[in-house]
């Protein structure tokens, strides 16, 4: 099918999904999980092909992301069942207003309609995204990178078999066949056919969507996350938090990339930092963190001199930019200039400094005395997520099921007309 | 100042506004209202110029929209005081989560930052938009049409005098000096400098924003609103609702443009409709409604034959498209095809039909037994509004103060790191 045919077909899934109750959607997710495991051999065969074709062309990290195993497939099925176990977001009354004229106004969560996801080479995104979209009552159009196409195709075939079993239209989950830029652009401009577009990938894809998308779009962005160690910080706590934020999983978007230290505690704190992140790790035979120091930090400890662009770099690696700042306002100004508005933290025992930081730092998640690594749907208690939004419109931070819905106002009356008894006259003067 | 300079200057207002408490913002609105009235002579002089220059070039309706009077200025000041009287949306805790690890997560309403509004020739939008933006804690960049520029400039000068009086930065409210397309495009693509763009104007402006904006944008759109009279309708109530929806103010977006009637009641209902909307009005010497009838309706009453495009036309006039449909699903399908997703109503005493209609009709407001004319921030009890959003992302329906804010997650801990005690080890394997 062409991209246009897939877009049209998905329209036919909107009403059946909007009308499906929680039990039906949960049964669909269960059937999809069962079908995924039943198709294990086909999926692994297809994946083997993908991996063979990609070998040599992509990095080992990418190959690892692409490769599926029976264990990974089991995790994917488990993930779908976890989504089934979450409360149904559709139909939730977000606000209830009773007006003096008797109108009952219910702001009600409803499905988006059709959600398109453009992603790259992780086949597991296929089942994750489909499960979240279906549970949120929306059809799902998937467009993967070409390296993963055979795998994703086999997965989608299985998911559609599951949908058929519960008599939901299989066009509720579709994979775009064309993996060229043309199909991505077609999705970005499918006005009226795509209600929400979520790009999940590198900076180039995000930028292309921002520049070209005419359909509603949410960016799940990069994270240049900061930790600021205030003069009133518990320095042991600060070292623990920085260590966790930087090293517990450096490759993810909520990992710390830059450290700011108040000048009054820099001479005391930076040696503690170096001892934990560099020396202790080297002594234990694990990768030490490479500290990229501004001039003031370099006057206190040894490290690599920071280049100006270091503070605008998402390392995703055992590297950390370090700067000494004059006070909390200087930290706030630095963050305003360099942050990607994902997650930032202050370590301080001073409530006033904490409040100034949380008020003035303009990011999706702002922490006081905790690691930035908690920015995650599961860690926030929101359940599974589609990604972390770094934009301000619609959804900010972890995008769970609620954020994959829109709302409408459902208004019940018993014949109310505007303007009451005088309406029939006043209206005639058009005022 | 150039548009670029204005955009840069507005950045300097973000923190002072984010830090301003409700009392400060309300004092600012009061000072702005006082200053507006104090500058009445200057504003009316400027407006006189605008009206002189526009005369002959624009329609009488446009001239009327453009013209200010002492009474209209008083209304504008009153409007600002009404916004001051509303609750402060900033700082509201939208959701509070306490995690097992002790993290306190507060999803908190926060200002957007900088809100840009592109509008046309209504000078009163200037003070309305500025008041809403300031109350929502955001700086406001206004770009009016050239016909209204002198008036809007005089108004903005007054508003800035008010801001200075309460020691808020006057760049919190700015008017773009350039009224050419270039400045509109500059706002649409001011990535990182405009946090929210709201176009308020005709279809051409909205389309330009959808196609060209790379900054976050909300459309306040047009309304092709439908009323569906079900076979289970109270027909007297239906006539009252259709009359109100069509004739109480035909020029506004929540007015009815198309009527759908169930075939089982068409023969009974349509003559009632014609009696009320055509004959009674003609007899009373007021403009009768021109009924544009599809073939099935035309077989029952007299009227103008409907052209196919009539059902896609926002008349904003005493005209109504009328079609007979087979059942509620046919009405839903017709609406899906022709609606602009603003407001639709069903008149019925059948709860099942009502529920099917409210579930399946994909519009910002869906009514059961009430007029579409209630889609309005004031009528919903939300206070003043910036417009009616017809998009699904972020805000749908009336955009009040809450919808002019974004949110952030403010997280308080006491040293929490992710992964608990095992984090230091598990992290080293990057899993």
From TrEMBL, chains A, B:
Any one GO biological process: L-proline biosynthetic process
Top-level taxon of origin: Bacteria
Keyword Oxidoreductase found: yes
Swiss-Prot/TrEMBL catalytic activity: L-glutamate 5-semialdehyde + phosphate + NADP(+) = L-glutamyl 5-phosphate + NADPH + H(+)
InterPro entries named in the record: Ald_DH/histidinol_DH, Ald_DH_C, Ald_DH_N, Aldehyde_DH_dom, G-glutamylP_reductase_CS, Glu-5-SA_DH, GPR_dom
GO CC, one annotated term: cytoplasm
UniProt-annotated location(s): Cytoplasm
Major place of residence: cytoplasm
Signal peptide: none
Keywords in alphabetical order: Amino-acid biosynthesis, Cytoplasm, NADP, Oxidoreductase, Proline biosynthesis
This enzyme's EC code(s): 1.2.1.41
Pathway noted in the entry: Amino-acid biosynthesis; L-proline biosynthesis; L-glutamate 5-semialdehyde from L-glutamate: step 2/2
UniProt xrefs under CDD domains: ALDH_F18-19_ProA-GPR (cd07079)
Pfam family, one: Aldedh
All copies of domain Aldehyde dehydrogenase, residue ranges: 5-280
Gene Ontology molecular function: glutamate-5-semialdehyde dehydrogenase activity; NADP binding
UniProt-listed Gene3D superfamilies: Aldehyde Dehydrogenase, Chain A, domain 1, Aldehyde Dehydrogenase, Chain A, domain 2
Protein family (similarity comment): Belongs to the gamma-glutamyl phosphate reductase family.
Function: Catalyzes the NADPH-dependent reduction of L-glutamate 5-phosphate into L-glutamate 5-semialdehyde and phosphate. The product spontaneously undergoes cyclization to form 1-pyrroline-5-carboxylate.
UniProt-recorded name of the protein: Gamma-glutamyl phosphate reductase
UniProt source species: Gemmiger formicilis
Lineage, broadest ranks: Bacteria, Bacillati, Bacillota, Clostridia, Eubacteriales
């Amino acid at each position: 099918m062409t991209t246009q045919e897939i877009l049209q077909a998905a329209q036919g899934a909107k009403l059946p999904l909007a009308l499906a109750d929680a039990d039906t959607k949960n049964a669909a997710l269960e059937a999809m999980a069962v079908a995924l495991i039943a198709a294990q051999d086909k999926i692994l065969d297809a994946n083997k092909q993908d991996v063979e074709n990609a070998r040599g062309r992509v990095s080992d990290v990418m190959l690892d992301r692409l490769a599926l195993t029976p264990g990974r497939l089991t995790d994917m099925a488990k993930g779908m069942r976890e989504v089934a176990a979450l409360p149904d977001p559709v139909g939730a009354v977000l606000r209830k207003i009773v007006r003096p004229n008797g109108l009952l106004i219910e702001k009600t969560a409803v499905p988006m309609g059709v959600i398109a996801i453009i992603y790259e080479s992780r086949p597991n995104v296929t089942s994750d995204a489909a499960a979240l979209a279906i549970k949120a009552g929306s059809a799902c159009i998937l467009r993967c990178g070409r390296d993963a196409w055979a795998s994703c195709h086999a997965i989608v075939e299985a998911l559609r078999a599951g949908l058929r079993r519960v008599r939901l239209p299989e066009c509720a989950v579709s994979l775009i066949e064309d993996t060229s830029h043309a199909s991505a652009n077609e999705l970005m401009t499918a006005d009226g056919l795509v209600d929400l577009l979520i790009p999940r990938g590198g900076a180039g894809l995000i930028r292309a969507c921002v520049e070209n998308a005419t359909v509603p779009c949410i960016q799940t962005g990069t994270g240049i996350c900061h930790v600021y160690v205030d003069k009133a910080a518990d320095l042991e706590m600060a070292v623990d938090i920085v260590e966790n934020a930087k090293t517990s999983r450096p490759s993810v978007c909520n990992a710390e990339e830059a450290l700011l230290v108040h000048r009054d505690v820099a001479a005391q704190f930076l040696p503690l930092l170096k001892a934990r992140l560099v020396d202790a790790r080297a002594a234990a035979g694990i990768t030490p963190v490479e500290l990229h120091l501004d001039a003031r930090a370099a006057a206190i400890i040894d490290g690599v001199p920071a280049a100006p662009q270091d503070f605008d770099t998402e390392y995703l690696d055992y590297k950390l930019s370090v700067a000494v700042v004059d006070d909390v306002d200087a930290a706030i100004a630095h963050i305003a200039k360099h942050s990607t508005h994902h997650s930032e933290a202050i370590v301080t025992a001073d409530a006033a400094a904490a409040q100034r930081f949380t008020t003035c730092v303009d990011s999706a998640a702002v922490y006081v005395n905790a690691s930035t690594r908690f920015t995650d749907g599961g860690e926030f208690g929101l359940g599974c997520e589609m990604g972390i939004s770094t934009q301000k419109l619609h959804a900010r931070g972890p995008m769970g099921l609620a954020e994959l819905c829109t709302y409408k106002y459902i208004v019940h009356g018993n014949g109310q007309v505007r303007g009451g008894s005088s309406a029939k006259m006043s209206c005639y003067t058009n005022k």
